[in-house]
Amino acid sequence: MKNKTILLNQRDNVVVALQDLKAGDVISAGDQSITLKEAITQGHKIARQDILENASIIKYGAPIGHATEKIEKGSWVHTHNVATNLSGKLDYAYQPELHPNVFPNENRTFKGYLRKNGKVGIRNDLYLIPTVGCINMVGDLIVEQFKQNHPDYGAFDEIILFKHPYGCSQLGDDLEYTRKILTDAALHPNAGGVLIFGLGCENNQLDELKNQMGEFDEKRVKFMICQNVPDEVETGLQLLEELNIVAQNDVRVDVPLSELKIGLKCGGSDGFSGITGNPLLGRLSDYIVSQGGSTVLTEVPEMFGAEKVLMARAKNEEVFYKIVSLINNFKDYFASYGQPIYENPSPGNKAGGITTLEDKSLGCTQKSGTSAVVDVLEYGEKIKERGLSLLQAPGNDLVSSSALAAADCQMVLFTTGRGTPFATFVPTVKVSTNTQLYENKKQWIDFNAGQLLDASMDEVARLFIQFIIDVASGKKTKNELRHIHEIAIFKNGVTE
User: pLDDT tens digits, residue range 442-496?
Assistant: First the structure.
C-alpha cells in the first residue's frame, strides 16, 4: 500500500487513514503535507485543515455532521468532537438527477434452474418450513432421517430448515409478517422442493398460509399438519421422498443475466466500507441492471442522511413519493416507540471509524451504484420491476437479509469491515472491506474488496462480476460450505 491516507472528494475537509498511524507521522492530503497531532487507527478520519466549532465535517463531498469543538489540522475526527446534523422528519422536493447507463449489454449467461412459473433459481434446495416455532424439532428429526437415506442430499443442493420462534400466539402485524415471509420462502425460485408443516392449533394456520400462496407448483410444495397424522416424522419423510423424486430431473441451463435478482446489504461497517466494499457492490449493481437484471437495497435507517441522493435517482415523481413515504414511515416507527431516530451507528461501526449516521448512510447507499430507482417494495413484497428497487426493512443484519431473500433475491451480497458468520437462506456472499479481515477470517469471507486500495475499480469489478456469475452457476459460498442458514422475521405487534 503506497498511500497512508485517502482523500475521497476534493471538497472534503477530512482524509481517511489507510493504516494505523502514529503521532508525528507526516501524511499527504491532496496537495499538502500534514503532521499528525495524535495516533490514528486505520479507517478513521483526520482533519485536513483547522475546523471551527459548529462547522460542517465534509466527507464524500457532503456534510456528515458538525464539529462540537474546534478541531486542529492533523487531529483525529470522530465521535468525541463531531455530532450529527440530523433531527426529526424533513421536507423533500423532487429534483431528479438521473445518470446514464455506462455498461453495454454483453449478453452473458449463468447456469440456473428454470421453474414452472418462469422464474429462475440459482440453487435447487430443499426447504422445510414450520408454521410455528414449537415444532422446529420435528423438522430436525425429519431432516436427520432424510440424510440417513440420502447422505448426498439426494437431488438437492442443500437442505434448509427454517427455524423460527413465531406463529403461535401472534396477532396483527406480527402474524401477517410471519405469514408473508414464510409464504415468500415457500415460493422462492431457489427451492427445488418445499415441505410446509404445522402443528394444528397455532394462530398461523396452515390453510390460511396456503391460501396466501396463490398459484404454486403442487408437485414441488407439500403440506403436513402434525396433529392430524399418526407419526409426523414418518409422514414428513415420505413427503420429502416424493419431492426428491420430482427434483431428480432438474438440471441447470443457460440463462441470461437479466434473470438475476441480487440483494445488497452491509453489516459491521468500518472506515473502508464506503471506500472499497460498498462502491464495489454499487458497480456490480449498475452492471446487473444494465444487463436487464434486478438489485434491491434495504436497511432503511441507514438511508437516513443520504435519502436525498436516492430520491434524486427516482425514475419518476411517483417513485419519488414512494421513497419519501418509505423514509418518513420508518422515522414514525422509531418515534412511536419513543426511540431516537438517529442513534446509529453501532459500537462496532464507531470502532471501525464511522462517526455519525450521515457518515454511515453516505457510505451504505453506495451499494446501489448510480442506477435509477424503479420501485419501492413493502416488507414481504416480491420484486415487481427489473432494475434497482428499495425495500422496507430495518438495518438489523438477520431481518434485512431475510427480507431481501424473501423478495426473490437469489443471493445476498453482504459487505463487512468487522466480519460475521451469519447467512440467510439464500447464498450470502461476504465481501470484506479490508484485506486484514479477509486474511483473518477466510472461513467467513468470500471476496476481498480491500484489494481496491492497490488495484483499480475496473480490474477488481471484472473479477467480482465473474465471481458472482460463478456463484449464480453453482459455486458454493462460505456459508453454504459450512451449512450456515438462518431466517429472522420483523416483529412489530402483539403476542397473546
Answer: 999 999 999 999 999 999 999 999 999 999 999 999 999 999 999 999 998 888 7
CA distance 225 to 239: 12
Q: How far is CA 342 from the centre of its chain?
A: 20
Residues in Cβ contact with 153 at an 8 Å cutoff, skipping those fewer than 6 apart = 126, 147, 159
Tell me the per-residue pLDDT of 71-109, one tens digit each, with 9 for 90 and over: 999 999 999 999 998 877 788 999 999 988 889 999 999
